[in-house]
Amino acid sequence: PCRSREFAKAMGIFTKTDAVDAYVLAFYGCLKQPEAWTPPEEEVRKLRALLQHRDSLLNDKLRIDNRLNTLKSTEAVQEVMDSLSLVNQYLKSEVARIERLISSHIAQHPGLKR
């Protein structure tokens, strides 16, 4: 989208309507003949999803770790500390489980090792 908009501006076309956009895209396609986009294979999409989920879990765990450390230096309610500790333990075990899934997925698809 950004390239086509810049292409239109370079052509001196600053109007943005559906008809103008269609013309610019058709002209861009004829002139540049860009490669057709193909979605990544299923195993790549799955690996990306697992990696993103692991990163999200690690960020959540870090947030809970920081909160626990802050509460330890204050007179925090013990029930809150216990609850956060349980959440932290769960996140740790879930990160380990996701990492095992990632390793297993990579082992099943040798092309992903690169």
From TrEMBL:
GO terms for molecular function: DNA binding; transposase activity. GO terms for biological process: DNA transposition. Pfam families: DEDD_Tnp_IS110 (PF01548). Residues 8-70 form the Transposase IS110-like N-terminal domain. It comes from Salmonella enterica subsp. houtenae serovar 45:g,z51:-. It comes from the Bacteria. This is IS110 family transposase.
